[in-house]
Hints:
The protein is α+β, with helices and mostly antiparallel strands. The protein has helices spanning 19-30, 58-69, 102-111, 132-142, and strands at residues 5-14, 36-41, 47-56, 74-80, 85-96, 115-119, 123-130, 147-152, 156-159. It is elongated.
Amino acid sequence: MDQIERFVISVLVANHSGVLSRVSGMFTRRGFNIDTLTVGETESPEFSRITISTHCDPGICNQIVKQLEKMYDVKTVKVMEQDQTVVRELLLIKINNVADKRQDIMSVVDVFRAKITDYSPEALVIEIRGESSKINAFIELLEPYGIMEMCRTGLVALERGGSCLKDA
């Protein structure tokens, strides 16, 4: 039996309306789950890059890639190799600003190399970026101080070295 793994898939697509909807719709129709999805314009305004993370077995990942490659607006699909990829995500988190807990919160912020991006008498908004495991550990340490709300991006990923998705 195949083992469930996390896969990060980069997809270079035409940059026009409806493409993201068709790509995500393909996942829905086939019953594939998306853990995170990020999309943005590339260095060339005619293309967007979609980064999808999913947990599945290798056979399902292979099916996903084949289905994506069949889509008209898809230029390139690549499963990113874990040891050959720089992967990051961003978290904005709002914490209760309580005077007697502030120094403890500041210590966590310093240790994780995060930064406070907004300060008010009621709340602190903190920004951190890094690998998912770092983000998860940061959230876990801040939970006791009262998380008011948070917003987390999906993964963004680039292959290490000189190769580029557009050249694949």
